[in-house]
User: Which sequence fits this backbone?
């Protein structure tokens, strides 16, 4: 038995849209599927959670145990991004100050939910066990080492690590040449 949904089964999930060669594990959990858009050549592995407004571009891999909490403002993942295992991306978060109540079972009038779109641009690489907070833009080509806390937007083509992250050095743009070569082969 194939561990990924068939195209007919993907249709039954009632996603907003999905492209060609989409592989979603049967063990992934999907909430508010009508708000999720998926491009071509996307793979979503076992035990991932996709919830709320999420847009995924082309040639994206989301590894096992990753959670994407899009809420109403959403998460946008552009082409050629790689989301390693055990990543958590929040576009929505409770207020932890103690001045309001928290959790999804409490009525909105008693809470102060923070909700801002998260954007993961082209060729971003997020290492295992990273956390991305609401309102962050991960600029093109930026990469993040394992267990990095991403609490602010990044510089393009940077290598970042730490809690909270700091820029380690610039990242090579050589892969853009490989992308052009790859796209030529597709024609």
Assistant:
């Amino acid at each position: 038995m194939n561990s990924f949904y068939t195209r007919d089964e993907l249709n039954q999930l009632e996603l907003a849209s999905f492209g060609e060669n989409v592989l979603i594990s049967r063990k992934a959990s999907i909430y508010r599927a009508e708000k999720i858009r998926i491009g071509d050549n996307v793979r979503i592995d076992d035990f991932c959670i996709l919830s709320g407004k999420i847009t995924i571009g082309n040639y994206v891999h989301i590894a096992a145990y990753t959670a994407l909490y899009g809420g109403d403002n959403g998460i946008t993942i552009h082409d050629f991004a790689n989301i390693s295992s055990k990543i958590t991306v929040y576009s929505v978060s409770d207020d932890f100050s103690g001045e309001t109540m928290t959790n999804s079972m409490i009525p909105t009038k008693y809470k102060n939910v923070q909700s801002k779109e998260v954007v993961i641009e082209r060729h971003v690489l997020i290492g295992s066990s990273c956390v991305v907070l609401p309102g962050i833009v991960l600029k093109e080509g930026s990469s993040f080492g394992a267990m990095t806390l991403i609490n602010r937007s990044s510089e393009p083509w940077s290598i970042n690590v730490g809690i909270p992250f700091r820029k380690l050095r610039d990242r090579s743009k050589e892969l853009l040449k490989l992308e052009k070569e790859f796209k030529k082969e597709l024609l």
Q: What stands out?
A: The two ends are 33 Å apart (CA to CA). The chain has a mean pLDDT of 96. The helical segments are 7-13, 175-186. Residues 175-186 form the longest helix (12 residues).
